[in-house]
Design a protein that fits this description.
Helices cover about 35% and strands about 25% of the residues. Helix 16 packs across helix 17. The strands form three sheets. A nine-stranded mixed beta sheet has the order 7-8-6-9-10-11-12-13-14, covered by helices on one side. Strands 15-16-20-17-18-19 form a six-stranded mixed beta sheet, with helices on both faces. A five-stranded parallel beta sheet has the order 3-2-1-4-5. The protein has three domains: about 90 residues, NAD(P)-binding Rossmann-like Domain (Rossmann fold); about 210 residues, 3-Layer(aba) Sandwich (UDP-N-acetylmuramoyl-L-alanine:D-glutamate ligase), CATH 3.40.1190.10; about 130 residues, Protein-Tyrosine Phosphatase, Chain A. By secondary structure, the chain is α/β, with parallel strands linked by helices. This is UDP-N-acetylmuramoylalanine--D-glutamate ligase. It catalyses: UDP-N-acetyl-alpha-D-muramoyl-L-alanine + D-glutamate + ATP = UDP-N-acetyl-alpha-D-muramoyl-L-alanyl-D-glutamate + ADP + phosphate + H(+). Cell wall formation. Catalyzes the addition of glutamate to the nucleotide precursor UDP-N-acetylmuramoyl-L-alanine (UMA).
Length: about 450
Amino acid sequence: MKIAILGGGESGVGTALLAKQKGYEVFLSDFGLIKEKYKKVLEENAVEWEEGTHTEERILAADIVMKSPGIPDKVTIVKAIKEKGIPVVSEIEFAYAYAQNISIGITGSNGKTTTTLLTHHVLKEAGLNIGVAGNIGDSFAEQIAVAPDKIYVLELSSFQLDGIETYKPHIAVITNLSPDHLDRYDYKYENYIEAKFRITKNQTEEDFLIYDDDDEEIKKWLSTHKVKAQLVPFSLTKKLNQGAYLEDNNIRSMINDEKVIIPIKEIAIEGKHNVKNAMAATLVAQMMKVRKQTIRESLSNFQGAEHRLEKVAKINKVQYINDSKATNVNATYFALESMNVPTVWIVGGVDKGNDYDELMAFVHEKVKAIICLGIDNEKIKKAFSNVVDIMIETTSMNEAVKIASKIAEEGEAVLLSPACASFDLFTSYEDRGHQFKEAVNNI
């Protein structure tokens, strides 16, 4: 069997290693440049590769193609592969065939990284043989090559779910839905929603779908589609007989008459959205038969995800918070909602068709100054110039943090929560977050 792999990043190289182990003839092709660390791995494992081009003849000779999630279907080579009838799969789909244990799949527009890491943390603290992969950490395929018997908690993007045919999580979680990546879905929100719900398409009556019962789009979809999995909701606003809900500042989580009660003041990560993330993780843990005490202790000692409402430092009694992973308005909504002191807000980058209206109430109430960090800040200026007194444009992280440190006073906060992609000034949201932390530490 011949496999062609498009993309020489984490998922592509991981797939190459697993495919090689399983006896495939492997050819990896990247239209861009492959990082040196990945080239080294490919060379060490005798994997044929190319960069800067796609040799169509070699790729179209494959029996199966693994397409990295960042490559759109409209790319010429992908169209040619599909026209020839060659199956195109994601790394998740390819690796799943060799997994020997169940997986837990977590998706959503926001909160999926935190929920994935939190779920992994709780299950690991319980002593389960557990791994974490997907849109986070080392690739699923590479880890399956080394430890196929582990239970994996997978963070799954819509792009990864687009490429599944047989993948089936025993427990699926949808944290929430809001418009994102619409450029990949013909600018149709319903197409993006369908992609997210692919997480449950292969589930059976023995499987579970955990979801946010306060999310209108999730409820709407579930009301018009048949799902085989057992539905397990969580909510901040209503009492539930089965699932998790909030009452008297306690999470009450009920699965098959087994109740867990967790005071929200004991949860290490703050904000209403993190109460929901904790609910989802608690429900998974209950299904995996984790002891109540272990669940409570794990939620109280969890460190949180880097670049997601990460407290960097307190300098001159000003708290600096790195929320660089907030690449859309909905993520920034959660960040501003969780702020309880006057805030200097650093915002901006590559706008993905943002509508800033839903942030207005929080900006009125909590934001004392806005620092625009991007090449084109016109939309942000137009949205908020009449709402805040201080608005300053910057084009470097050092400058933004220096100005913020002069504006913020004792007892206030500086929040980097861009609501935009990072590619105008940074290589990734991680790069943006690291630069923020470095600039803060240099104050």
